[in-house]
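Minimal example, chain plus phenylalanine.
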Amino acid sequence: RPISTRLRASRYIVDDPENNVTPYIANLVGKNLHQTENHPLYIIRKRIESYFGSDFEIFDNEDPIVTTTQCFDDLLIPPDHPGRQKSDTYYVTKDSVLRTHTSAHQSQHLRAGHQKFLCTGDVYRRDEIDSSHFPAFHQMEGVKLLVDGSWTSRDEWLQSSDCEIVAKDLKTTLEGMVDHVFQQGSSLEKRWRDDYFPFTEPSFELDILWQGEWMEVLGCGVIHTGVLERCDVSQKRGWAFGLGLERLAMVLFGIPDIRLFWTQDPRFHSQFTSGDIVQFKPYSKYPPVYKDIAFWLPENNNFEENDFFELARELAGDLVEQIALIDKFKHPKTERTSCCYRVTYRSMDRSLTDVEINQIQDSLREKAALALHVQLR
Ligand code: PHE
């Protein structure tokens, strides 16, 4: 196990000035939860695939390392887009990243001539840490080309009845999909909202009313003509959507914490069987340990929260349950900013000892001061 982990990591952690993949993240890549039979993410994925039927080709084994061209340029995401920044994205080299969304595979499949397909995979985003955010999660992409023609301008296309047909097909299909997944007949309440993505036009978001609250399920839209042109299919039009599997699985199975998807605990896995959506029965949690850390930000205020979160991840791995900013103020005279974060440590699998947590907290303090140039208080 140590050897294979090291070999695996060496694909993602390479000697390159742009590389910001940490060992903790590298170790998650390739777990392929979406391919693991009886896993809740697999169960949801299969249920969605069964709705689309054999018309749609299935992809689930693409390399999670993609080029920045695949992940961004092919999708018309401009160079200065926040999603491309190193503070948000794991770069392997200057020109390759751990995919931040499954849309990174749209263009290659369109170029290869596929017209209807679903593509599922693990995606990576540098993010905060809590029960609903984790730097790795899973998405499913769906694409369907359905009309042929030639249009002289973008405006002409956007105002055409064909564009309306595509948008209508998209909405009907996705409404049917959530009805199929939630199995509530047509009683499930849904609402459409306008959204924006550089690679679809127009773009929408689908929300559903779940236990009294509106929940965003997916982003989608009519594929931007610029994307199709780059794939040499400019005479065709169609739609695309992308949805997060964890969020759906959490509400459908009643799974309260996103980190549970990654646990090895048999008390979790024994509860699920392919094909069945059952309510998760919580097993007793081990007690948490809280530790606060307070520091002055560097004079130039050059401090990325995500770097701090990641440092904690790096040192404590899964033992960090949450990091919450509990106090922040500016000193009236020196004008320096002080932040205090409360770190919640908890293991999914055992009780923690004071000694081990104090050790982790001490090294977190030390490394924060060194690497992030904060001044401990
Ligand atoms: N890739 C988008 C995201 O991750 C979702 C999306 C996919 C939107 C396809 C439109 C079309 O948020």
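The chain has a mean pLDDT of 94. The longest strand covers residues 136-148.
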